């Protein structure tokens, strides 16, 4: 039995007049995993069907059950305040057999938000609200296994709460939606909260392939007490016109050394840090680098 996760499309909140037909869940910044609890064994498979059970050994005991079931959920690392921290999770994601010190330093939890198979019976065709009721009746919460709340008819309120607590956004799910394995469907809509940042351009890396001869990515920073601090490279969000304008404006600003006070990727074309722009991003890594930055445009 192999059930691939159903995927959401990016979009906007349901219109107010239809909000009662949807439930909202918080969007957890983690790694998707399907849990197979069958014949007393626990297996975790990634979104790409990769075995990850050994990477998160602390979840096995809390997931163990005398019932046979398949669950959909998210593995999440928490910071000291209990908020999701994808940067911390990255130190666990590619370690197939972590030692005790890493498990203790970077604790994870498993957020369960759907039940796909229960005691020999598929639940995929059941509407979301019935699957949700089944999930809650299972009373799975124990230790590192959590069942985050679902809020029918309250998407706007839930999005405001997500914004207040610095979460990535929410996922809106049709109450009458079946579970569609491996499919990206408009029956699930992820509404992401957009973060913006003003940055200073300190250099660029040359492009390859279609971008050969122009800019591949911009190296950007933010001013601090000790100077310009490198915060990442931005390689998406550009139009051909933007790339041309940037190259024209940056070429006369070329300098021999890096304008950043700390380390930055080399080799690069360094420039005087006089041009500023705006980026959209998903958050910060533990090293103080932007996650998934997208260029919005110059502001000077």
TrEMBL record:
NCBIfam families: NHEJ_ligase_lig. It comes from the Bacteria. It catalyses: ATP + (deoxyribonucleotide)n-3'-hydroxyl + 5'-phospho-(deoxyribonucleotide)m = (deoxyribonucleotide)n+m + AMP + diphosphate. It is an enzyme of class 6 (ligase). Its EC number is 6.5.1.1. SUPFAM superfamilies: DNA ligase/mRNA capping enzyme, catalytic domain, Nucleic acid-binding proteins. The keyword DNA-binding does not apply. GO terms for molecular function: ligase activity. This is DNA ligase (ATP). InterPro entries: ATP-dep_DNA_ligase, DNA_ligase_ATP-dep_C, DNA_ligase_ATP-dep_cent, DNA_ligase_ATP-dep_CS, LigD_ligase_dom, NA-bd_OB-fold. Belongs to the ATP-dependent DNA ligase family. Residues 106-224 form the ATP-dependent DNA ligase family profile domain. Keywords: Ligase. Pfam families: DNA_ligase_A_C, DNA_ligase_A_M.
